[in-house]
Amino acid sequence: SGLLSRLQTSAPTVQTLSSSKSFSQNIPSCLWKLGRLNHVAIAVPDLEKAQSLYKDVLGAQVSETVALPEHGVYTVFVELGNTKLELLHPLGEKSPIASFLQKNKTGGMHHICIEVDDIKAAMTELKKKKIRILSEEPKIGAHGKPVIFLHPKDCHGVLVELEQA
């Protein structure tokens, strides 16, 4: 019984999440709500090879290629059940993906996309909070819904896309 009593008295105290302050108490109320992760976008130098990896090797459901001239990209979506991957390939020389691939020859993560319930309210509030938005107005994104991009320097190095849910 000596060992057991020493273990019981020397065991560290662990505070559980349920007994600590709720995370939501620290979040200021907004006129808009952040929703679910819609997709993670990956820039790829060879779209067909990337499609083949996800479809033929990993067995994922992969969409057809769609050109989005307004954004300067070709897109392909890979369904993952709880979210998607968006494969991005340059469309034209002025494509932001072309410049990304010049710096990252083998490709890589380009941005994350999070849904919002009110993109206009989000834009207004984020501007007040000194978060730079990369366009004056939302553009129509790959899902046919309004999107905006937030400057990566204001988002800890991550390019964040917000999409109207």
Describe the structure.
Keywords: Cobalt, Isomerase, Metal-binding. It comes from Thryothorus ludovicianus (Carolina wren). Residues 36-165 form the VOC domain. Methylmalonyl-CoA epimerase involved in propionyl-CoA metabolism. The protein has 165 residues and is of the alpha+beta class. The chain has one domain (32-162): 2,3-Dihydroxybiphenyl 1,2-Dioxygenase, domain 1. It is 23% helix and 30% strand. It has four helices and nine strands; from the N terminus they run αβαββββαβαβββ. It has helices spanning 2-10, 47-57, 96-103, 119-128, and strands at residues 34-43, 61-62, 66-68, 73-79, 84-90, 108-116, 139-140, 146-150, 160-164. Strands 1, 2, 3, 4, 5, 6, 7, 8 and 9 form a nine-stranded mixed β-sheet that branches. The longest helix has 11 residues, at 47-57.
